[in-house]
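Late entry, written up from scratch paper. The run itself happened at the end of the previous shift, but nothing got recorded in the book at the time, so transcribing now.
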Amino acid sequence: MQRRKAENITMLIGSTFLGAVGQLLFKYALSVHILYIIGAGVFAYFVSTLIYFYVLTRANLSWAYSVGGLSYIFAVILAAALLAENVPIIRWVGVIIITVGVVFVGSS
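Output as recorded:
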């Protein structure tokens, strides 16, 4: 049982990370006007969705959807690191709160 939960968490981390990468690629593509980068973002979203569907066949929706809150965390980190977006301290506080919530839900 614990092994399956660990596998589900690993897949959800991958899924939410790919979703955030898709968002990053969309933002970047729209700023530099390169269409194939939008295609890469759509592909990242597609793979993310396939992984999420697989997890849903093995886990409760209430749990899986809550762990999906990782996407907010990944999006803020990627935007700050790769797009040099200014992230105010209050948003970092929110990211920390979301992280704590995801840890609580993920361990339940």
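The chain has five helices and no strands.
(Scratch paper discarded after transcription.)
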